[in-house]
Amino acid sequence: MKKTWLLVLTAAALIIYLACAPSSPNTPGISSTEYFEDVTLTHLPQAPKLHSLDTGFGDVDKDGDLDIIIAVENDVNRLYINDGSGRFTWKQGVFREVKNDSEHVRLSDFNNDGNLDAVFVAEDDQTPELYLGKGDGTFRDLSDELPSKSEGNGLAVADVDQDGLTDILVGNSGSKGQNFLWLNNKQKPGSFIDRTSSNLPEINGATQDIKLADLDADGDLDMVVGNEIPPNRLFINNGDGKFTEKADQLELLVPLHTRETVLFDADGDGDQDILFANLTNNGGEWDKDPQARLLINNGKGFFKDESSTRMPANRFSTYAANVIDFDGDGHPDILLSAITIPGFNADKVRAYRNNGQGKFTDVSTEVIPVETAGRSWGICIGDVNKDGIPDAFVGGWGTQARLLLGKKSRK
What we know:
The chain has five helices and 31 strands. By secondary structure, it is mainly beta.
């Protein structure tokens, strides 16, 4: 009898130990590391075949938490409502019940009424969408009032002419890939005037991404454009929303097929650096070098490619990247999607740790749960469960989107 009870107690102790022991990121079925918990199965609608290409976080129903708007390729765009704890429910019937080829979405208050609005761009069917929020999770559809249609891919929203209203920049691909600048109308905020011909150089760049930041420390927003067809481009703002290309200020050592551009202070010197996330080919054969490239700003808007000494080598292709301080040390780290090309095969999301001086180490095994893999797209960062720690939503092309809740790290 004593032996029997001893066995029972030993088994119980083992169960308690296993329940409390730290999760190993290499153990199949375990969805947690010291840095993230993959809560996809319990916190997100399950849609394993959806093409979730881009995501915006924002409190569209004004209840104090972050909701999710998703740009969906060849299906209806989606709104996921947050219950306050980071658990999301699909609210249907919000956007047009049309299966557009949506590529990107951005949120902003375009008409200055205190409610978040949404703009989408679409590629193949060239149908952008504009929705003005009512503040309760519903929207007014003003898509037909946008200035023009195009093969939209890149998308950025910000006040580029410093008039207090949010403007729209659309990156276009295709044979007529001139990008658009739509300035918000001062007389009717939330409507837009096409200022492409007067404010942007006439360039067809097959653009995939546009990002805005003050790159030369003059107080206005400049622009970096990531292109499918080289070269990527840098444009400096004159302060009124008129952009001039400065090719000599952007060091491009190799031809790139760029899908995501990230502007952030990588080396902690107070200015904005550039990360280009790249493909070898969009699902085809091996072509260009997909190495992620980090270009360091000298403080005056001149960028030098220092990837060889600052970035881990990679051969996977990357459709999305974003910055997040996942270890809580005050320095911006990087998350990258990964897809194996040739083959277009699902791969694990990658995590790169910043040493505080802009040198990055691949710590994916330590940081990313095993389940956080797929043909990943559109990484969005925000605190969805209101615990003060940043979380990550990772979209997917024909694979389940993932939700990672950040955890207090060893740092």
